[in-house]
Amino acid sequence: MLDIRMPIGLMFLILGGLLAVYGLTTEPSLYRISLGYNLNLLWGGAMALFGLGMLGWMRLRPQADHAESREQSQAIPVEALATLHL
What we know:
Layout: H1 5-25, H2 39-60, H3 66-74, H4 78-82
Helix pairs in contact: 1-2
């Protein structure tokens, strides 16, 4: 099963990287209207960091196998079967 954190992390990493590169390569006069802040660079960096965070989270805590945990939760313990008086 596909872990949703991987495509989200890759999308934010790629788009954030592109936005940050655009912010680095544009003229500073473009940012007069935003009080001199290079918002493309700032938000591109923030998006790239978020993407890296999602990928890191996926790497540190892999997705649990839901089929295995479902089988374990549906299994009746042997002690419970022994107490049944059919």
